[in-house]
Amino acid sequence: MTKTENRSVVSPVLTIENYSLDYETANGPYHALKNIGIAINRGEILGLVGESGSGKTSLAWSIMRYLPKNAREPGGKILLDGENLLEKSEREMETFRGRRISMTSGSKSRKIIPRNRKRSTNATIVACRWTVPKTAA
Length: 137
Fold this sequence. Notes:
Shape: globular
Largest sheet: 4 strands, antiparallel
Number of strands: 7
Helix content: 10-25%
CATH superfamily: P-loop containing nucleotide triphosphate hydrolases
CATH class: Alpha Beta
Radius of gyration: 17 Å
C-alpha cells in the first residue's frame, strides 16, 4: 500500500465553489466577487488580505449570510461541512452563527501596513468552529 492509499480522505470543512456576488446600485450592478473558489480543511487557516474595497468583507458577509438587501448571488455554493449555506433560512443560520462559524472584521486600528506606504491593507477573518460530539471524545 502506498502512502497516498493509506491516508484517509479529508473533506473540506468550508468550500466555496464558483461563487459570485453583485450589489445592485443606481448605476447598475457592481460585481464585487466573481467565481471565487476556496477549500479549507479541518485545522487549516486562511487569511484574506487585500486593499480596501477588494471584497474581503463581502466574502465574509456572504459566508455568514449577513448580506444587505441589494446583494445578488448569481451563482455558486458556500458549503459548511457539505451543507449549502445559500439554501439556509435566516432562522437556520442563527443556529450556525457563533456555534459553528463566526466572523471578526479588521478595523482601522488593526491595519496591516505594507512596504508601499501609500496603501494600507485590512484583514478579515472568518473562523469556523466545530464541536466534537460527546460520543467521539
